[in-house]
Design goal:
By secondary structure, this protein is of the alpha/beta class. The protein has 13 helices and eight strands. It folds into two domains: 211 residues, Spore Coat Polysaccharide Biosynthesis Protein SpsA, Chain A (Alpha-Beta Complex); 75 residues, no CATH class.
Length: 322
C-alpha cells in the first residue's frame, strides 16, 4: 500500500480519519462507503492501533492499494490513533469515521453544503443504528440521544445535544488549536472531551437530523458497558471543571449531569449487589439515590427489595443474560 489518494490530489479538501483496532470484520464496509461518495476530493487515512488481527486487517486493506494511507502503531488507544492520522492529514477538513461504522451515499456532499450555508466550523448528523440493536428496527442515534437546540458548551454539558462521531466533519486548523484528542486517559468519551473544548473556544457547530451514517451497535464492544462509559464521562466532566473557565449556567449544567451520572452508577452497582444476594447493602445504596432522584424505578425497586428481594434478583439476572 502506498501513501496517497485515489484521485491523487496535491491538496485534498477532506482527510478521512479511520482508527482501526480489531475491526477486520467491518472495515471493508466502512472503506467502501467512503469510496462510493460523489464528492471525491479526499484522502483516506487508516491507523492500525496495534490490532491483534493485523494480518487479517492488512489482507483486507491490500486491494485498496494506493487509495488509502496506512499507518501502524503500537496499541495506544483511539485518541492516539486519530491524532496519528491528524499529524499527516493534508485536508483542510477532517471527517471522522470509526472502522465498524459506515456512511450513507452522498454524505459528504450533503454536509459540505450544510456547512457552507451555515458557516459552521463543525457539523454532524444522525445515524441509523445497526448490528446488535436491542431496540425496534429503523432506530436512529438521535432517537436514543436527541440533539435539541443550538450546540453550545452548556447544551453539551447538560446532554441536550450529543455528537455522532462517525458523522463529524470539522476544520483541521481548529482541531490543532484545541489540542486534538486527549491521549492521557484512554477512556470511551475522548470525543466528548474534544467537543467541549471546541465549544468553549467558540467553534460554530451545527447538526442535521438526517441519517448520514450507519452506527454499529456492538454488544461485544467496550461502549456497551454502561458503567465504564459513565465513569469515563465523569472523568471528562471533572477535567472540564478543573481545566476550563465556565460561567454560572455552564457550571450548573456540569454539576447536574455529574449528579445524574453518579446516580446511574450507584444504581448499576446496586443491581450487582442484588444479583449477588447483598440485599441490605443494595437497600442502603438505593435509599441514598432516592434522596437525589425522582425516578419511579428507584422507588419500585426499593419496595421490591423490602417485599420480594428474590424476585427482583431473578429478574435482574435474567435481564443481564438476555
Amino acid at each position: 500500500m502506498q501513501n496517497g489518494n485515489h484521485n491523487n490530489p496535491e491538496q485534498p479538501i477532506i482527510s478521512v480519519v479511520i482508527p482501526a483496532y480489531n475491526v477486520s470484520t467491518y472495515i471493508g464496509e466502512a472503506l467502501d462507503s467512503v469510496f462510493v461518495q460523489d464528492f471525491k476530493s479526499y484522502e483516506v487515512i487508516v491507523v492500525n492501533d496495534g490490532s491483534t488481527d493485523t494480518t487479517e486487517l492488512e489482507k483486507i486493506l491490500e486491494p485498496y492499494g494506493n487509495r488509502i494511507r496506512y499507518i501502524y502503531q503500537e496499541n495506544r488507544g483511539i485518541s492516539a490513533a486519530r491524532n496519528a492520522a491528524l499529524r499527516v492529514a493534508r485536508g483542510e477538513l477532517i471527517a471522522l469515521l470509526d472502522a465498524d461504522d459506515s456512511w450513507q451515499t452522498g454524505k459528504l456532499t450533503e454536509q459540505l453544503a450544510f456547512m457552507k450555508e451555515g458557516n459552521f466550523d463543525m457539523v454532524y448528523g444522525d445515524a441509523l443504528l445497526i448490528g446488535d440493536v436491542p431496540w425496534p428496527t429503523r432506530t436512529t442515534f438521535m432517537d436514543r440521544s436527541p440533539s435539541n437546540g443550538p450546540v453550545t458548551l452548556e447544551n453539551l454539558l447538560n446532554l441536550r445535544v450529543t455528537v455522532v462521531v462517525s458523522t463529524v466533519i470539522v476544520r483541521r486548523d481548529l482541531l490543532e488549536q484545541c489540542g486534538s484528542f486527549d491521549e492521557a486517559d484512554r477512556n470511551l468519551t475522548e470525543d466528548f472531551d474534544l467537543w467541549l473544548r471546541l465549544a468553549h473556544k467558540g467553534a460554530r457547530i451545527g447538526y442535521q437530523r438526517k441519517i448520514l451514517a450507519n452506527y454499529r451497535y456492538r454488544s461485544d464492544s467496550i461502549s456497551a458497558n454502561r458503567m465504564k462509559l459513565h465513569e469515563a464521562a465523569l472523568r471528562v466532566l471533572q477535567k472540564t471543571r478543573l481545566g476550563l473557565v465556565l460561567n454560572d449556567s455552564e457550571k450548573e449544567a456540569l454539576d447536574l449531569t455529574a449528579q445524574k451520572l453518579e446516580s446511574i452508577l450507584i444504581l448499576e452497582r446496586a443491581k450487582i449487589m442484588i444479583i449477588k444476594g447483598q440485599v441490605a447493602e443494595a437497600r442502603a445504596v438505593m435509599a441514598k439515590v432516592r434522596k437525589t432522584s425522582n425516578s419511579w424505578k428507584v422507588s419500585v425497586s426499593l419496595v421490591l427489595l423490602h417485599t420480594f428481594p428474590g424476585l427482583l434478583s431473578w429478574y435482574l439476572q435474567k435481564r443481564n443474560h438476555s
